[in-house]
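Blackboard transcription, Thursday session:
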Amino acid sequence: MSTNHFEILFVFGRPASGKSEFFDHIGKRDQNSLLSKLHIAPFETIDDWFVLADKFREDTLWEKLTGKRKYSKLDNNVECVTDMLLYDYAILHLNRHVLELTEKHPTFFQERTLLIEFSRGGEKNYEHTLALFDPSILNRAGIMYVNADFDTSWARNVHRFEEKQKYSSLAHMIPRSQLERLYLHDDWGTLTENNESGFINIKDQKIPFATMENNDTPLEDLRNPAVMGPKYERALELLMKDYTTRLR
Amino acid sequence: MTTQSFDNLMLIGRAAAGKSELIDFLKHLSEADRLEKYHIGAFEEVDDFPWLYQMWQDEDLWEKLGRKRTLATKRDNVYLTLDWEIYDFTILKFNREIEKKQKENPDYYNNNTLFVEYARGQADAYKKTLNLFEKDVLERTAIFYLDNTFEESMRRNTIRATDKDTEQTILHHRTPLEVMEHYYKINDWQEFTEKKPHGFLDVHGVKVPFVTVWNMPETLDFNELEKRYGPALDQLWRLYVDKPL
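(Written on the board underneath:)
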């Protein structure tokens, strides 16, 4: 395991908590400062949304063929998951992807960081979901949780939708009931005992975490590198401290 | 439709009829040569086998989560189909993929031929399947059917098994014998085409040109393959450009 960069960095947080803005930030930052300040090597990202979206597309074809969708329903033209096991399936998909990657490129993590993004809560909480990963993956991982409560998450979602609506009549928004089901309550506070950083135990693996507070960040600052850069640096510095401690 | 090359060339026939080998043959020719001789310039392939295989593999994940397998059972790393509707599903997926290519590049067919490769069996095999294609797709399509006997398909399929039996890949995806017997033994191609070697099929009111090529005996000799495929592709081209509206 590397001592100067994260091999695997999980990025968690409610929808619109600020994860996309984080990815946008690191995508624009130069590699030297990315490594020295955020401990992120040249990186790749995987996201469970692509797995879910693929199943939604499959559902469109199943509906055409049989009249029935398998995993989702349409609510105001937005796909809503009806088969809750699909969320676990998506994680096993990511898990398989990482195991295959490691098998094909055994030295991948020596010089690279893999970022894994997803959001969970409700009946599919983080403790349950993380346990679906292989221990060899958990063993390489650190977690950054971007904290925004449900009301903030909802308000930012509404804002995003309104912005998109200005440019496209096709803009759509996940219904509140769907978001509430999974994201109204999550187990992050319980799992981390509300500590800002430390370790959580999953499958006998001590996984370091850091929570980055992002609840009160004004909308206009979410993509402002002068505001967000230092916040990310602080969170990931805290995380790296524990990440390297685990190696001793 | 462009007049230089086929837009969609549907390559069909039994499993192990020699479809992948035909593609392999065409890949050995230069683009200019291929265009001049066969009306196929740059080309891409869409084949439903990788989709089927992916869906069966994905079922391994559902099984881990406690779900019963419904699409295919798994034996010695080989999947045995349970749900035959999946074969209709992949035809709808062809429609979507073909539409996507045109959407992403409206000039797609100016430079490309798209091979649409699949195999179907049973009494309603091709009539049912072709009816699942969108009219827009059929209007740009010519069909190249590779014919052989079931026994020959079985023989070729068994040879595929020898060295890569535990792996299913494009050129080496041995179909389990049960599936060959149950699904591929008979099909409706001869009935559907009224045993004509070439002509038009009427699907959704579209006249779709087709040619049937007897693909036996198996040969890897390129001169022999040229003699076999050349006149057939030429015949198909003539039907394709002169098709009635």
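Lecturer's comment: Chain A is about 50% helix and 20% strand.
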